[in-house]
Amino acid sequence: MSLVELTKKEESLYSDVIELYEGKTKSSNGLSLSEVYSEYKIIHQKYAEYSAEDIEFLKRGLFIQWYALSEPNYLTGISELDENNERKIIINLKNRIDKNQADNELLWMLNYYLEWDYVFDRFKNIAEFKKDNDVFDLRNVKMKMINRGQMGIYWNSIIEK
To answer: What is the pTM of this model?
Structure first.
């Protein structure tokens, strides 16, 4: 799946979650919440699959991992993820940082996610990430994250405050 296809799928699933949260047993797409969870697991797997080659896949996969643990699953549509795919994301994140191939946006996101340090506890045998105080804080920049799936929806809500 391409990033465009994954974005469309995520936006559709996000709409499903909102409908289900409002009390419907099935979304207008015919999905139950457990089916949304299954679909998100597949999306995360796709992001993990290409996370070594494409930094955008890495950013989105990392976001999903963080979001799965930091917010209730009935609000995000993201539940248990495949641990091997989570490890792949963490390994690829570590490799990018070690090779100085992480851009400011990825490091800014990581700094933010580290506020919930328990999210990374399971991966201490792979890497111990620390906040980087030299990273430019992008919340002060009025940028728009469009066509970036649920990650973009989330960051737009933070940046617009």
So the answer is: 0.91
